[in-house]
Amino acid sequence: MDGTPELFNHIAEGYDRWSLILSAAGIHFWHHSAMDALAIQSGQTILDVGCGTGTETRALASRVGKHGRVVGLDPAREMLDVARSMAHLKDDSAPIDWTLGDAEHMPFSDQSFDGVTAQFSLRNMENWRQGLRHMIRVLKPNGRLVILEMVQPVTTEGSLAWRSLSKVTQALPSSSLTPYQWLGESLWHAPTAHELTVAAKEYGLVLQVTQSWLGGLVVVLTGTPSLEKKIPKSNDPIAVWAVDGSLTAQQGGRWMSQLLPHQFTIHLVTVIASKSAGSAMRDANIEAWHRAQRHALADWPSDSQKLVPIVLDGEPAKQIVDYAQKVGADLIVIGHKRREPYAERMAGGLTQYVLDHAPCPVLTVGLPDVR
After folding, report:
1. What kind of fold does domain 238-365 have according to CATH?
2. Distance from C-alpha of 340 to C-alpha of 323, rounded to nearest angstrom
3. How far, in Å, are 74, 76, 105, 110, 140 from residue 101 at the CA level?
4. CB 220 within 8 A of CB 199
5. pLDDT one-digit tens code per residue, 73-109
6. Could you tell me if 237 and 267 are in contact, meaning their C-beta atoms sit under 8 angstroms apart?
7. pLDDT above 90 covers what percent of the chain?
8. Which among 27, 207, 286, 342 is placed 20 to 30 Å from 143, CA to CA?
């Protein structure tokens, strides 16, 4: 957020004390767990993003030893002033370079750090995706990224912990402590842990939750650069349009032709899910699926976009997800038939499965209510 550095300037002097109080002393344990996750070795170069008053930065300097190097980066000048004033390092600690700056515009070369950590700073970035991308950019190929953060919780326990934190910070007794209300409020701007892992994968890093507390409100995520080779794909974006014989599926084509950019290639995917092999019933079923695809092609309201008809066999939901993964799809479009939960399970749970497992964004297309 634009005003976040200024907000932290106001609370720099008492930041460590109040962080300890508001976390019920848990913050020490969380920080130590994150530093353990870095698996630091003597002589390494470590970057601490959003280092604040430098408490953890100094601990990192001690872990890498005098032959290593540590950089503490923070956008709040007064936080760094406090960090410098407290920097009484042991003889066997690495030197610390205190740097004023933000994660979104790091003044560091590519692949220049063995380890990068951001501890309770990512959600305060103006653009956390850009900050994450730059943290991965400066990480060496065999390096390690560790994020300790309060993320937007997705569990009931985590949501209750979030609510409790917000109530405590709203009730702080002094107006000088008002900036601490941001602790609870900032979570509205924070990603979920899953959103973090998905974004990291886009930038070539395998990131996963390695520790979690308070129902997933506080997490440690650890990542290393992916060794997987990306499959080259066409410059044109790809949409996988899952078609069956219903009006909902036909509506998807009309919608896409109007609103998707003309550069899109549309893979019109029909999955034949027949369970009556070798019978006349199977033949009729297969013909019905092919007929649905022919109708979809005929009803396509524009010839300005490329259409690729695809017919697959097997379990529909998995086939759609696997095919989208195979071709590197940028979008999946499926019909949403407004089924109740039990009816959706009876029908195979296709929509929910695709939403849960898709390698790209999913657009569900439904029909309007008839009033």
Report:
1. Rossmann fold (3.40.50)
2. 27
3. 5, 8, 7, 17, 21
4. no
5. 999 898 899 899 886 777 789 999 999 999 999 999 9
6. no
7. 39
8. 27
